[in-house]
Amino acid sequence: MASEKTLNTKNLATLGADRLAVLLLEMVTGDAAAKRRLRLELASRSGGSDAAAEIRKRLATIAKSRSHVDWRKIKLLAQDLELQRAAIIDHVAPTHPAEAFELLWRLLDMAPSIYARCDDSNGTIGAVFTLALTDLATVADHAALVPSALADRVFQGVCANTHGQFDQLIGLMANPLGRDGLELLRARFEQEPASRMPGIERNRPVNDDNCAFIRQPLSAQPALAAIADALGDVDGYANCFSDSERSRPTIAAAIAERLLNAGRADEAMAALTAAEAQFRKDGHWPDWQRVRINTLDALGRSEEAQAERWATFERSLNAEYLRAHLKRLPDFDDEEAEIVALDLVGAHADFHSALAFLLDWPAHDRAAKLILERQGELDGNLYELLTSAAEALEDRHPLAATLSLRAVIDFSLFHGKHKRFGHAARHLRTCEDLARRIEDFGDRRDHAGYRAHLWRLHGRRNGFWNV
Questions:
Q1: Computed from CA positions of residues 337, 340, 344, 346, in that sequence, does the dihedral angle turn out positive or negative?
Q2: What is the pLDDT of residues 188-229, one digit of tens each?
Q3: Dihedral angle over CA of 59, 60, 64, 68, nearest 10
Q4: Torsion-angle region of 248 (φ positive above 0: left; ψ -120 to 50: alpha; else: beta)
Q5: Mean pLDDT of 139-160
Q6: CA distances to 39, 77, 377, 386, 427 from 380, in Å
Q7: Is 406 strand, coil or helix?
Q8: How many C-beta atoms surround the C-beta of residue 115 within 10 A?
Q9: Secondary structure of 3-39 in HEC code, one letter for each residue
């Protein structure tokens, strides 16, 4: 049973409202963020309108600020923005969804000015905007917005999407826009570039009045594609791309997948064929390959699909393709094919890709064998892979686990990776424990010999030896 002194809701309630109010006021003295939180709670008592007014006032204050936010204060700014976002959802949206929509839009609209004042390389601010955008879609479903007016807002948002704050906006707004709103939005993107872009210089300074027009040619194509997707218009999606663009494997795959989902497998294959030359020529296009195999299956060309699955696995060591290939084989044939496949993995030129495959499959006996036979290819800089290998193999294959850890230790010491010395020292202790279960090191140094070897080469690395 919890003590009466334990800090929990029940015990604090016994202090009474008056005493708690006094304590709260004392605690928030000098804490502006806490005071704002209390004001929002007080405003919410009389309904969403008062809370909305408090939030709007705070957003205006943040928007007007021009001071630089350094790394020490960026978390506080993110917390302030998050407080406003949460308050919109908790206190305004339930009773005033249209007002909540406007406030969330205002918050997202502030992104360029906020990013201009701080370095958000760790994504702290961006995370708040991402949540706000998701909230915007949820609130819009309940706000009874006029489709034509919403289409105008979405158009403005897409054109002003300078920092990704309105990414995926069209798809998120598809439901509240409805078919009529989406068609209006499509017409807007189709008409505006032609009627308003001429005469605007590409290097003209950006301001609130001309920003949308300058960005429009860059925004129109993906926007029209997103609208077509929202409408389920496969042909409209395909028509967003020129013939030269359709020869790119990524775009061809996107078009073909939509055609395939619409039951138009022949046309999907034609779309893929338009990009086949580029696929065969120069590179790694996983979507094109995946959609092609699915299309072959849809066309009843299962043997070709199986051959492509195997070839893709053999080339890339992609386990998904091997599993899909084996799943479609008759009983017992799959066991034989798996053995052949794992033999191919063990002989693959890319040692570390092969090791990762065998660990994940899992085929730990083969992974240990790979390490023992190709020890010289271990790259100690790949510490995540090699330490994972050691953990997976230490019970049944202590020597292979030891060699993996030795590679990490050797790399850290030889290259003077001081930040890794603590980990390397821990790995050496693990090697000592593993050595007790290794009966034969073969032509490799035993643990005492390896430790002595490290001392001879790196005896002055005090950051390692003194851990």
A1: positive
A2: 998 865 434 332 233 333 344 434 433 444 458 899 999 999
A3: -10
A4: beta
A5: 94
A6: 56, 41, 9, 7, 12
A7: helix
A8: 17
A9: CCCCCCHHHHHCCCHHHHHHHHHHHHCCCHHHHHHHH
Cα 185 from Cα 173, distance rounded (Å): 11
356: tokens are 């990762």
The token duo for 441 is: 């090191």
CB 147 within 8 A of CB 185: no
Neighbours of 273 (CB within 10 A): 13
User: In a 3-state reduction of DSSP, which class is residue 362?
Assistant: coil
Q: What are 176's two structure tokens?
A: 């509240």
Cα separation, 152 vs 149, in Å, equals 5
Q: Per-domain residue ranges for the chain?
A: 373-465
SS (H, E, C) 301-354: CHHHHHHHHHHHHHHHCCHHHHHHHHHCCCCCHHHHHHHHHHHHHHCCCCHHHH
Using CA atoms, how far apart are residues 192 and 186, in angstroms rounded to an integer?
Answer: 10
Q: Please compute the mean of the pLDDT values over residues 45-52 and round it to a whole number.
A: 74
C-alpha span between 328 and 296 (Å, rounded): 14
- pLDDT, tens digit, 9 for 90 and up, residues 76-101: 999 999 999 999 999 999 999 999 99
Contact between residue 416 and residue 460 where contact means Cβ atoms under 8 Å apart = no
Neighbours of 248 (CB within 10 A): 17
pLDDT in tens, 365-405: 999 999 999 999 999 999 999 999 999 999 999 999 999 99
For residue 421, what are its two tokens? 């010395």
CB half-sphere exposure, 308, CA atoms < 13 A: 17
Q: What is the DSSP string of 157-207?
A: HHHT-SSSTTTTHHHHTHHHHHHHHHHHHHHHHHHHHHHHSTT--TTSPP-
Both ends of the chain: CA-CA distance in Å? 43
pTM, to two decimals: 0.78
Q: Of 156, 74, 161, whose CA–CA distance to 114 is shortest?
A: 74
How far is residue 181's CA from residue 238's CA, in Å, rounded to a whole number?
21
Using CA atoms, how far apart are residues 260 and 277, in angstroms rounded to an integer? 21
